[in-house]
Each structure stands twice: as C-alpha cells, then as structure tokens.
Amino acid sequence: MAASIKLMTQTLLQRSLTALSQRSLHTQPAIFSSFRSSRQVQPLEQYPEVEVVHNPPEWKYVERLLPPQTVPQPVAKADYPSGWKPQTADGNSDGYFVARTKNHMVPVYLHTRHRGQRRITIVRRIQGDIWRLEREVRDVVERARNGKLCATRVNELSGQIHVHGDYVDVLREHLKSKGF
Amino acid sequence: MAHLRESSDKALKLLRTLPRVQIGNLRPNPNSKQNDKRGRAQHGGDKHGAGNKGSGQRQNFMRLGYETGNQAFYMRFPYEPYYKGHHMKREYPPISLLQLQVLVDTNRIDVSQPVDIATLCNSGLLSLKPAELQYGFQLTDEGLDNFKAKINIEVQHASEAVIAAVERNGGVIRTAYYDPRSLQILANPKKWFEKGVPIPQRMLPPQDAVEYYTDAKNRGYLANPEEISKERLVLAQKYGYELPRIEDDADYEMLTAAKDARQLFLGLEPGWLVNLVDKTIVKLKKT
C-alpha cells in the first residue's frame, strides 16, 4: 500500500515538472493566482485576435518605464544650477570625513521635538577626528548667531554632532564649501 | 535604662530575622487602590458622585457642545464652509522647480526623454497615492530663477510663472489629466506589467476639469496646438525673454513627443499587453 502511494506521488511530481518545463510562454503558476480576483474565461470567440510580437520596436518605451535597480551615480557636469555639488574632499587634509548619503546628499538634518519648540540640527556620518569638526561647527554656528554661544553634543560612537537650533542651511553650505 | 536597652536589643534581634525590604513583601500605600466595585444600600451605597435627581443622576452625558435647548454656541453664528466637499476634492502634491533641478543634477531623471508621472515616481524620491485622492503633481515656482533644464515635462497643474520658466529654457510643459486607475498604473508601471493585464484606456477629464485642460494658457493637453504656440509667444513677451525656437532644436522629436489623450504610456497603445519575462508585446491583430 505504502509503496503504491509513493509511486503515485512520484508520477504526479514528474508530470508537474514536465508541465513546468514545457510551458513556453511565461504564465503565473496557478498556486499564486487568486481565483477571486481573476476573471472567468469567456467563450474564445469573444476575444479579439492577437499576435505575440517578439523583439518589438516599442520595447524601448517599456524599458523607460522600469525603475532603476540602484541609485544612479551622478554624472560630472560643468555646473549644477540647483546648488547641489558632488563630493570632492577625501578628508586627508581635514582629519575628518563626512560621508554622503546613498542619495548623494549632505547628511545634515533637522529634528524637531516638543511641538517644534526644540530644534536640533544633526550632522551624521562623521568619520575620523570628530572633535575637530565639532570645534569648526561651533565656530561657524557662533558666527551665524552673531557671536552668541552655541551648544553642541558629540556622539563619538555613532559619529554624530547635535547642534542646538536650526542651522541646517548654514552647516550644509559649510560642509559643501569644504568639499564634503 | 536597662529596659530600654533591652527593648532595642529585642528590636534589633527581630530585624535580623526579618526578610529584607523588597518589592515582593511591600503592600500598596493605604487608599492608593480604588475598589472597582461600588457597594449598594448599607454596603456604602449613596450617590457615588452622580448627584441627586435628574440628568446627572442618570448619567445622561450630552453630546459635545449641546446646551439643553439653547441654540448651541457652535451653531449660533453663520460661517464659511471651508471644508465643504473636502473628501471629493482633487489633490495635487507639489514638486518645486528646485526639486526638479536637483533630480536632474543628481541624475535621478533622464531629461533626454519626456518626463511624466511614471518618470518622477520611478526616481524613487517621489510617490503618488491615488487612493488618497492625489491626482498627480503640480509644479510650483520655488527655485524658479535657478531652473536651467531643457525638459519636456507633463504635470497635472502648473502656474503661469512656472510655465514661463520651463519655456524660457527651450523646454515644453503640458498639463494633463489622468483618472485614478491610470494614476495607480503610472505610479508603478512595473507592477502593472507584472500583472499581465492589457494596458487600459485613459479616461477623459471630469466636467469641472475640462475648462482647465482645454485652455491653451494652462498648456492643457486638450487645447488647440495652434493656440498653444500663440500663447507661448504671448508669455515670452509678457515675461520678457526670447522664446527659443523648438523647430530648430536638435531634440525636436523629444520635445514634441506627446501622448494621445486616451494613451497611458508614451509609445504603447491601450489594449497591448507587455510581457516583461519573455520581452514580448501582445498586440491586437490588424485586419
């Protein structure tokens, strides 16, 4: 009895495997389709006559509609009207390095808490001598606020500098001018 | 004093045998716990804070703002119905010209091809939610002076200054309507192709949008092309720039490429079925 069941399952498996290999046109396997959402098959006369075009000349229009698999690398240009700049510094002269994000942007962010009453500017992705950058950041921010003191907090482990207040544009421009 | 020393010694002796004070042998502060049962009659039954007689006693909590027969305060004055029909209004999420220029500068969109909703959504930085009544993008005028891209763009709403900024650089802008189902497809074309369903036809705009999309001043996709070219000249004179001649441009074909009013994807006709795995297109047989 057990042997016959084993034989049956084997033949079933073989049949399904051959069916899989024989399927010339790609179709979705039946197990993944939903019988609720799919329309029932109508009499064949109701369908219009179609032709399957291989290597169609319109395929370039289809390729345009497919999203890129990765973030594209920026192309070098003479000027960038939007104010965005590619990264040029490697950090050897400064002793620290601020890496760009995966979208090729400068990692300076604004965090707001307490219903927008507390604004903290955060510089992320800092490598190397973070304390040297912190001194520079404090200098830049204090100049932007007319010599008033600036409160900063350094997280050495995660490579972040937190600056009290909204100085996103100031710091982003400063880092861009240094080539980061 | 002997008896005092004796009693303190006794107390210390007792303390040594007692367990340490810890969370397991503490009880809550007196009266800090509220009994979840209210006693009836002689077992502590009284008014229980609900008062004597009437609406209060029956705990008849009235609806917010109701003033027991007075004209309620919130109904006392006439008002402007700002939010009337808000659940039916079409929403056009904004993209600024600055954002568009950043997309161009960082190579996120290809301006050598016509740009539409699918291009913007495929950049991975913008998204559209047609289920939340978002009917496409509007191009706003932030970063207008720094916009330098020559682009053939199709958006759903654009102001006059934005149209001028695009046309000054030798570009082309068009405003076009898409119905929600078409938008759902355009927001993620790959997902639609994977479904294996023919490309549907695009619907015509609803009655209240017809006026906008047939107006040449808005560069509507249903406007007369001759009127549009006239309006391009008028706008150039109004804003004081020389209109670049598209006819002499090297990218003439790209700049003049436009979808049909019933077409969803450029170059692909409604009714076709795209097979991404076999790289085939199933077309209707021409008779």
UniProtKB/TrEMBL annotation, chain A:
The organism's superkingdom is given as Eukaryota
| Record carries keyword Ribonucleoprotein | yes
Q: Where in the cell is it found?
A: Mitochondrion
Q: What is its main location?
A: mitochondrion
A biological process from GO:
translation
Q: Which GO terms describe its molecular function?
A: structural constituent of ribosome
> What Gene3D superfamilies does this protein's entry cite?
SUI1-like domain
Q: Name one GO cellular component term.
A: mitochondrial large ribosomal subunit
InterPro entries in the cross-refs:
Ribosomal_mL49
Q: Which UniProt keywords apply?
A: Mitochondrion, Ribonucleoprotein, Ribosomal protein
Recorded family membership: Belongs to the mitochondrion-specific ribosomal protein mL49 family.
Q: What is this protein called?
A: Large ribosomal subunit protein mL49
Q: Which organism is it from?
A: Drosophila albomicans
Q: What is the lineage of its organism?
A: Eukaryota, Metazoa, Ecdysozoa, Arthropoda, Hexapoda
Automatic annotation (TrEMBL), chain B:
Enumerate the spans annotated as Large ribosomal subunit protein uL15/eL18 domain.
94-173
Q: Which InterPro entries match?
A: Ribosomal_uL15/eL18, Ribosomal_uL15/eL18_sf, Ribosomal_uL15_bac-type
**Pfam families, alphabetically?**
Ribosomal_L27A
Q: Keywords on this record?
A: Ribonucleoprotein, Ribosomal protein
CC annotations in GO: mitochondrial large ribosomal subunit
Domain of life of the organism in this record?
Eukaryota
Q: Which biological process annotations from GO are given for this protein?
A: translation
Which molecular function GO terms apply here? structural constituent of ribosome
Q: Where is the composition biased (Basic and acidic residues)?
A: 34-49
Location of region: Disordered = 19-59
Q: Which family does it belong to?
A: Belongs to the universal ribosomal protein uL15 family.
| Protein name from the UniProt record | Large ribosomal subunit protein uL15m
